[in-house]
Design brief:
Length: about 280
């Protein structure tokens, strides 16, 4: 942290696995100085534990994940394909899994079909944006999973695997935060790449963390991706009297535009974060 003429300025640089940068547009009101760097993760993410009961031949999946729309229901399938490539037909279907009030999952479900051959090696586990009843309907017109993992070849009756965001477009970027303690203004610049071309996304600063989402604290300007999926937008907030570490913040970019994500207790499926990063201090 540096103090320059009564100003307290900091940056939170957010980097993900892909390389690249957005083209510049407007600049923050003050030049930021070097600050802590945090990763802006592509979510949802978590683990899945598959098991087969040797007596009943029932296949179960225990999910622990975060980065979902709070209180949202999701279809879960085991599909006869791999995460990379053409999606196959579902071999096993499960009851819907539901995220809790902080956008996390911790639940176990049993497949509708028996698995007499044991854990289905060479297939994939798919977690979808919406519930089984809403698959194929807007906004899930393509029925593309939001998270996926390949099931390795195994003869075991129990295995654990990582659950990753679905392969494809992998958004990444950075957020620069500059705080003026005298005027109580916070300038946030978002740059990024890898988003769907010409797509529009709501962005927010919220109370809590990526793993335990909370209430919106500040709404940022919507980010609009260019023809190559790049973003660069700056928001200046006024009346900011508390910043981390006095409060816990996280910054997120939603899948949908502001008009598509809902609010309060009526959050829509497109509320789900596609990018998220914890802001620990400024």
């Amino acid at each position: 942290m540096s103090r320059l003429g009564g100003r307290v300025l900091a940056t939170v640089g957010v980097a993900a696995a892909l390389a690249g940068c957005g083209s510049g547009s407007s600049s923050p009101t003050a030049t930021p100085v070097a600050g802590p760097a945090v990763q802006l993760a592509n979510v949802p993410t978590g683990t899945a534990v598959l098991s087969v009961d040797v007596k009943t031949h029932r296949l179960s999946v225990k999910l622990d994940a975060y980065g979902l729309t709070p209180n949202s229901a999701h279809a879960l399938r085991v599909t006869d394909s791999r995460c990379v490539g053409k999606q196959g037909s579902p071999a096993f279907t499960f009851p819907d899994v539901t995220a809790d009030a902080v956008g996390a999952l911790s639940t176990e479900v049993t497949a509708d079909q028996p698995a007499p051959k044991g854990i289905p090696s060479g297939m994939e586990i798919d977690l979808h944006l919406v519930s089984r009843a809403d698959l194929g309907k807007a906004p899930d017109t393509g029925s593309i999973p939001i998270a996926c993992t390949d099931i390795p070849t195994t003869t075991s009756t129990r295995i654990a695997v990582r659950l990753y965001p679905f392969p494809g477009e992998k958004p990444a970027g950075s957020a620069t935060l500059a705080y003026d303690s005298e005027s109580k203004t916070l300038t946030v610049r978002l740059t990024g790449f890898g988003l769907a071309p010409k797509s529009t996304h709501a962005a927010d600063i919220e109370l809590g963390s990526c793993a335990k989402q909370g209430k919106q604290r500040y709404a940022l300007k919507e980010v609009v991706a260019g023809s190559q999926g790049r973003i660069d937008v700056t928001t200046t907030l006024t009346g900011v009297d508390e910043v981390p570490p006095k409060v816990s913040w996280y910054l997120l970019v939603h899948q949908g535009a502001r008009s598509e994500i809902g609010s309060g207790a009526s959050l829509a499926p497109l509320f789900r974060p596609i990018l998220c990063g914890d802001v620990t201090h400024i």
